[in-house]
Amino acid sequence: MQYFPQMFDETAQVALLAAARLVIADAPLFAPTMPRSGNKMSVRMTNCGPFGWVTDKERGYRYQPTHPMTGKTWPPIPPSLLDLWDEVAGYPLPPEACLINYYEGQAKMGLHQDKDEEDFSAPVLSVSLGDTGLFRVGGRSRQDPTRKLELKSGDVVVLGGEDRLAYHGIDRILPGTSDLIAEGGRLNLTLRRVTKPK
Ligand code: MD3
Ligand code: FE
């Protein structure tokens, strides 16, 4: 795990937020539901890129090229994020999915592994915008000890190698810790490879 605190300054954060808002205008945030239980996740989501991560009660976790409500293909990944990937991912192929998570109020994300991708050799790259998130990361077993990290607006985290399959989650958001998003809350953008390279 590589942590780059304040990789984006205020000006760059404003630009990234504007890009995220354009994506959301075309591909609205949706409320994902868990497989089997059908319980709603507290985080709302959307995506950009050739693939997007979605989940619902019937079909479970998966990547697909279209938005679950509009049926349209996802908008493209903003160029600034493609540049960031080239700079810090250390992977020769471009990201295929950018998942955008929006946390407001009491939203959180339980401890989980990201393993819906075909290719774990590529890292996952995360950018945080808005209110601080209390991030928790452990090891490859759910029982491994975890440590906490405050992810602040402008921070970047790259999860590669051994850490690619580490358990992780967001315990909660600290409201009022950033002025970036007028409505409050936290946006997290994760860049991923989905398919296995041939
Ligand atoms: C550690 N998102 O979308 S980003 C997710 O802040 C997710 O929204 C969190 O977990 C969020 O799946 C955490 C940081 C992150 C992303 C991927 C990881 C940490 C990771 C993959 C492996 C280990
Ligand atoms: Fe995750």
Q: What is the alpha-carbon Rg in Å?
A: 16 Å
Name of the level-1 CATH class: Mainly Beta
Provide the succession of SSEs.
EHEEEHEEEEEEEE
Structural class: alpha+beta
The pLDDT mean sits at 98
* Unreliable stretches: none
Note the overall shape: globular
Into which percentage range does the β-strand content fall?
A: 25-35%
Number of strand elements: 12
User: So how many helices?
Assistant: 2
The name of the CATH superfamily reads: Alpha-ketoglutarate-dependent dioxygenase AlkB-like
Biggest sheet character: 6 strands, antiparallel
CATH architecture annotation name: Sandwich
User: How far apart lie the N and C ends?
Assistant: 26 Å
> In the CATH scheme, what's the topology name?
Jelly Rolls
Helical residues, percent = 10-25%
* Small molecules bound: N-(carboxycarbonyl)-S-(naphthalen-2-ylmethyl)-L-cysteine, fe (iii) ion
Domain module tally = 1
User: Order of strands across the biggest sheet?
Assistant: 1-10-7-12-5-2
Could you walk me through the main structural features you see in this protein, from its secondary elements to its overall organization?
There is one protein chain. By secondary structure, the chain is α+β, with helices and mostly antiparallel strands. It has one domain (2-192): Sandwich (Jelly Rolls). It has helices spanning 10-26, 79-88; strands spanning 2-4, 44-48, 52-54, 62-64, 97-103, 109-112, 124-130, 132-137, 147-151, 156-159, 168-174, 186-192. It has a six-stranded antiparallel beta sheet with strand order 1-10-7-12-5-2, covered by helices on one side. A four-stranded antiparallel beta sheet has the order 6-11-8-9, with no helix packed on it. Strands 3-4 form a two-stranded antiparallel sheet. The structure holds N-(carboxycarbonyl)-S-(naphthalen-2-ylmethyl)-L-cysteine and fe (iii) ion.
